[in-house]
Amino acid sequence: MSSYFRGAVFILVCLFTVHAYAQKMIKLAPKESKSLTNHYAWTLNATCNVQNDNTKSKIRVSVLNNKGKVNGKSLSQGQATFLTVKNNDQISVSAEPGTSVYLVNVGASAVAAICSV
Asked: CATH number of 23-116: 3.55.30.10, 3.40.50.1000, 2.60.120.1030, 3.40.190.80?
């Protein structure tokens, strides 16, 4: 029984360790939109590093369900904010379980972000 418990703990540690270093690339062409959802049972906290051609771009972030934070600004269902970003800017994001957001690149150039959880 003790080896079963140790095996279960090892698997849980591995799952959380892999998740702790997960990265997601988000790309938005001009006028493109995307919907993102936190399907996990815990709050996700991420730091996103913006990559673009050094022009300023504007992104609209709308919360469709639940609540979260973008750069420390709390947003609930139905609320939105605009972010003006340029190359190498960092965005901090926090999403509670079940939170869905809708992103729209309202700028004239493509924007990408690598988000580390």
From this structure: 2.60.120.1030
